[in-house]
Amino acid sequence: xxxGYINARVRGMHSRLLGKKAFDxxxxxxxxxxxxxxxxxTPYRAEVQEAAVIYPGLxxxxxxxxxxxxxxxxxxxxxxxGSDAETLVGVILGRWDIHNIKTVLxxxxxxxxxxxxxxxxxxxxxxxxxxLLELIKQPDVRAVVDLLATWDVVYHKPLTPHLDEYAKNRxxxxxxxxxxxxxYHNAMSMLKEGRPDHDVMRGLICLEIDSLNxxxxxxxxxxRVDPDTAREYFLPGGAHITEEKFLKIVGIVHVDDxxxxxxxxxxxxxxxxxxxxxxxxxxxxxxxxxxIYLTRKGVGVFRTDPLGGAVVIGYLWAxxxxxxxxxxxxxxxxxxxxxxxxxxxxxxx
Length: 349
What we know:
Blueprint (H helix, E strand, L loop, with lengths): L3 H11 L5 H8 L4 H8 L5 H8 L4 H24 L4 H25 L4 H5 L10 H8 L4 H10 L5 H4 L3 H7 L3 H18 L5 H27 L4 H5 L11 H9 L3 H8 L11 H7 L3 H17 L9 H25 L4 H7 L4
Helix pairs in contact: 1-19, 4-5, 5-6, 5-19, 6-12, 13-15, 13-18, 18-19
């Protein structure tokens, strides 16, 4: 596959990502109106102005970021259409399908108003906005899954078998984990052995699965979940957090033993954070460190193979990271959080 044209276009898009100077300019703004004004000096100008017509303040910024991300993903998808890179992009964008279905299911589970659910959707995957809008019109979780089945949307397959269990226990995690297992299995099945670009993508997915398993194992350890119950929520496909390690972490009593269990993995950098997280029950620091690690790995592949699909993979990770950081800045400014605390929340990569 000749990636010359595709990579040239994607590098052009990459060059328009915000640099340190642009982020510093956003950080010094004192409120949402001034932040909006500064964003209008960036490549987000069109979306910021478009969103401001409909939404005021923070909602306008978040709507603009969603629009920009969706348009960016669709542009990249149009560039790679018909090429081998389409598979790689499809794997990456599949996560937005999962995000959107989970968002709708959570909304229906909590009886959230349709307009509130809509504001959290990011139609950047294969499920377009018209389909998603029909889903949020459904009265409950079962109706959402039934509509997916009626339209033969592939994501109904992992959900339908677990509907009765959900109805009995009202435990939404049963459906969410079924979606995750399906997504990662499907993503791995799309990637071919022996293709360097596919190997890069497979490595990132393995790390993502390991990260989710580690997060879940630590939470279950905190909540003293029975290992037999925990086993049902293990996601296969990772490279470092095996089922044996996963269950060991769940059942460990002494914190030092958890540190020893992950010491030989790429996640050993978490060891200093684990005691406080387990003592206080606050896992946000652990999750942030894991997310930064994964993002660094994803963004880093942009510079690994200038002639392959890694350029596209790295750009999409970098774009998502940029939008996350702008969103953090906007929310902190809206909440009048100090600049020092804001800096701690950012996920610079």
